[in-house]
Amino acid sequence: MKPIRFSLNGKPVEAQCRADMTVLEWLRGEALLRGTKEGCAEGDCGACSVLVKNSGGKASRYLPTNSCILLMGQMQGATLMTVEGLAELGEAGHAIQNEMAINGASQCGFCTPGIVVALAGLLEAKKAPSESEIHDALAGNLCRCTGYRPIVEAAQKAAKSVAPRLPSAKIADSDHEAGSDESRFLLPTDLKSLLKLKKQHPEAVLLAGGTDLALDVSHARARWPLAIVTRKVEELRGIEKSKTHITFGAAVTWAEMLPMVEKHWPSFATLIRRFGSVQIRSMGTLGGNLGTASPIGDGAPSLLALGAEITLARHGKSRTLPLSDYFTGYRKTLRREDEIIESVSIPLPRKGEDFRVYKISKRYDQDISTVCGAFWVSRKAGKVEQARIAFGGMAAVPARCASAEIALVGTSLDEPAFEAASAAIAASFTPMSDMRGTADYRAKVAANLVCRFAQDLEGDIVEVMAL
Ligand SMILES: Cc1cc2nc3c(=O)[nH]c(=O)nc-3n(C[C@H](O)[C@H](O)[C@H](O)COP(=O)(O)OP(=O)(O)OC[C@H]3O[C@@H](n4cnc5c(N)ncnc54)[C@H](O)[C@@H]3O)c2cc1C
Ligand code: FES
Ligand code: FES
């Protein structure tokens, strides 16, 4: 047994439990802190939100996270704040707690602790958030009875009062192992150790943020005797910019990627802001997204269209390949069993290049794509030299559409060129029908996105909306 050491509401704790127990289960069942609620147990409703400050990586502040899909082994060396901890701040708790009460922002109250936590996280990051930033912070928190207007007003009022700072408690973080004999997490801090552990324990679960994998625990009641966590591996947490590329380590979270992506590929940043919720983006990683090899994952289409390369590593060896070679079949890739994703490298944009990505989903926020289409062209003297067009949700793998790319090359992106590309897309894919959309709908939407791209290049459409 290796106790899990972390800071809880400003005090150090040592939890003696299975590493694969959810933080929500531990809080409610062991710590008897029952302010944090369970709604969906799959990261969708936000009732279980807690604030987590992780050691390692760039995240040096508290971030709202879903405790229903966060596992105790991931807490080793972290700092955790619950709604009870917020209530103990200052003389009367956190400003947002008071404003929620005074402003009539809570009726049945089930969602309230999660909403308080999400807004406390926002106010920690932004002293005067705009209305749209408040809505963005609440995208992962469902309230069924009060309605969001009084909640947003409470946030605006709380932003005007002097909110007590959240404690910056630090915890000694030297343990590279945590949990019980039944379930143990290994937490290496460098790539060499990670790869060695992967070789020694091929049966271990490889865990990044857990926003995909931990649903197996919270929903399917999976039990993990051993997991290797990537979060603390320094080489996987870096963002490096060279003259030609930006390289993101596989354990970089979507929240950490956002500022750099915003600077170079604003359209990709718009997509990332619609990736799950603040809670999901705090934990979910780029490597985890490509690791799932999901045909509807939101990372792949943009990365394919931007011409990204992926680096895979195993004990003593690494190799880099175009991302377009990586996906080989439904949830199948070229990655060997003993390899991990080390990083993803994207060429920096150059003059004459244009990139747009469109996520089509039933809801704007917190929804999986029905179709995601990404378009990149490079032009010289008004003519297209190269084009890359990639889709998610159209085949068993995220895929480029070579015939549509060919239809654009050499043209001046006039109407006939776009029509030819649109026809090529319609002819190239046989998508499936599911609850998100019929095959026919997907085929039409994907083909029409070419027109959207054309209008965007003309400057006709500014904002990306859900259809
Ligand atoms: C409520 C909710 C909303 C979501 N919304 C979206 C969305 O809008 N768009 C979207 O695309 N996805 C979404 N997801 C899915 C998920 O959040 C993302 O795929 C995320 O990027 C996964 O990253 P992770 O670090 O949490 O992966 P994990 O769950 O830790 O791992 C996922 C898989 O990748 C493997 N893996 C992790 N790291 C590596 C590595 N370095 N090398 C090799 N394999 C690795 C794991 O072994 C596992 O098989 C959502 C999930 C939830 C619960
Ligand atoms: S219980 Fe719904 S997000 Fe965790
Ligand atoms: S107050 Fe009842 S769900 Fe929000």
From TrEMBL:
Keywords: FAD, Flavoprotein, Iron, Metal-binding, Oxidoreductase. InterPro entries: 2Fe-2S-bd, 2Fe-2S-bd_dom_sf, 2Fe-2S_ferredoxin-like_sf, 2Fe-2S_ferredoxin-type, 2Fe2S_fd_BS, Ald_Oxase/xanthine_DH-like, Beta-grasp_dom_sf, CO_DH_flav_C. It is an enzyme of class 1 (oxidoreductase). Residues 178-351 form the FAD-binding PCMH-type domain. CDD domains: fer2. One of its GO terms (molecular function) is xanthine dehydrogenase activity. Pfam families: CO_deh_flav_C (PF03450), FAD_binding_5 (PF00941), Fer2 (PF00111), Fer2_2 (PF01799). This is Xanthine dehydrogenase small subunit. It comes from Pseudahrensia aquimaris. The lineage of its organism: Bacteria, Pseudomonadati, Pseudomonadota, Alphaproteobacteria, Hyphomicrobiales. The gene is xdhA.
